[in-house]
Amino acid sequence: MNFSTLDFVVFAAYCLVIIGLGLWVSREKKGHKKDSKDYFLASKALPWWAIGASLIASNISAEQFIGMQGSGFAMGLAISTYEWMAAATLIIVAIFFLPIFLEKQIYTMPQFLEKRYDSRVRTSLAIFWLLLYVFVNLASVLYLGALSLETILNVKLIYGIIGLAAFALLYSLYGGLKAVAWTDVVQVVFLVAGGLATSYLALELVGDGSVLKGLSDLRKEASTHFHMIFEKGQFAIPDGSGGMEDAYNKLPGLSVLIGGMWIANIGYWGFNQYITQRALAAKNMNEARNGLVFAGFLKLLMPLLVVIPGIAMYVIVTREGGSGEFTSAMTDASKNLIKSDKAYPVLLNLLPVGLKGLSFAALTAAIVSSLASMINSIATIFTMDIYRNYFNKTASETKLVSTGRIAGVVALILSVITAPQLSTLDQAFQFIQDFSGYITPAIVAIFFMGIFWKRTTANAALVAAIVAIPLSVGFGKIEGLPFIDRMGIVFCALIFVMIIVSKFDRNKDYSKGIQLSKKWIKPGILTLILATVGVPIYHGLDLISMPVVVKVLITMVILVVLIISLLKFTVADQEEEPQEEMDGSWFELSNSFIVGSLLICGILVALYSIFW
């Protein structure tokens, strides 16, 4: 890409604004030293609009701008289910889980696990999260970001990785979450503006200068790319090795609505440190909830920014018939194959003067905001869950902050070393979802059972954490079983494991159980549990040759056994001596939250009705 003077000015202005704002908001009043609450929870002073903006800036990164556009190129609008179902998930999290986390006054998700279970569960899950964040999340964001720099500016991959890492550290290391959250507000402005500019150009290219014609042409020439729910064998996508695979394996039909997709989304938006940390830093409960609703509306917008351009590139490459400027630019020279993840960087090259700088700033904003968020969350978990518990229980506030900074630097160095190893992937976004799916079912099961039943024991949670990966690996070896269905089936198995272990556990301690005052919460979570397992079990039985009636009966038997087990557990809860109930005011919903939630649900129904 040839940057004009104006492009450099726009991009430089963005860099200066972010660094300057980050340092400015990081300053402290004279005589006040930054403590752990300042550094890790932004002094618990974030308003709703900052929470919502920071959630999206932390979430939307290279894996969406590049990885999701690559998936849009390969499989179309269906990949938007991750964005649109996330909007519904944010509402669920705000209603059921956020009040409990805020009432417990926690810094980290592992800290909640110790309050509910014990230190063993806290430490084991803290280690899981650290490994996942460092070697999957951070590494993938660095790789995809550097890939864009290589494609756009011909910057060598390793230099791009190092440069992005240094930029993220520059403004976030000193200020902590406060610097990250407040700069995210500006990052989202660049992100949305740049994303819309890219989508506008892509549609103009397809429509020969007309955006409306471009939209019409997309529906006509890429009709297969406008289905949200895939049937088995309906659509084939590149497998990254020159062959094709069934898109159903990535997005298995109804499982994206009432199946394993809920596991992925609730695990990410509900129990993921670098997401929930923003809500934990809210001024109060209403600000936190409204922030999640605001983020939900932004998620509804995201496919226009990160999927439509990928579909547009598919149409353009298809029109070239195998040879042309765009086809050549998207071809991986080493394999002589079209690489889906190059869709966005190639499109970025076509932007006019000024918009190149803006869109490149948007991409950089998406990358560095996610990096900064992950760095801060890694630092928080290591400092509060590992260092303070095992290395220095009497550490001063100043020592905790300095330890967090060191942990962030070390984590980034490890990710820089790991990132280049991801270059063999065709769709990095799918890799992230698949790999995360090995532990996500355990995380969701442990939190669900911990919140839902006070009789769930620490040993049950620990066993679930231990057997989750072997179970996921075992089911993962079953050819033809989509990873989303695998997550639903493993989640169901882990629920049974936790019930059985809790039932026969001699070390029962119900004192840490959560006594919920609102009677509708337990049925609500029970419904969520059932909504995640029925369809994956039915889909899993597709691998065995049997009549539909038999598959339905087996699925129903499993669900009935699960329901009976859960209801029996509930009755046992009621037989225990009453404990002090959690204050019901935490679960009171404001009018603004209710109206916003209903609007989001209505929009989702309309979208899935149109693009089913």
TrEMBL record:
Family per UniProt?
Belongs to the sodium:solute symporter (SSF) (TC 2.A.21) family.
Listed InterPro entries: Na/Glc_symporter_sf (IPR038377), Na/solute_symporter (IPR001734)
Q: Does the keyword Transmembrane apply?
A: yes
Primary residence: membrane
Q: Where in the cell is it found?
A: Membrane
- Alphabetical list of NCBIfam families matching this protein: sss
Q: Which domain of life is it from?
A: Bacteria
Signal peptide region: none
PROSITE patterns noted in UniProt: NA_SOLUT_SYMP_3 (PS50283)
Membrane spanning segments where?
Answer: 6-25, 45-62, 82-102, 123-145, 157-174, 181-203, 251-271, 292-317, 358-382, 403-423, 435-453, 460-478, 484-502, 523-541, 553-571, 592-611
Q: Its membrane topology, per UniProt?
A: Multi-pass membrane protein
Protein name, as recorded: Sodium/sugar symporter
Keyword tags: Membrane, Transmembrane, Transmembrane helix
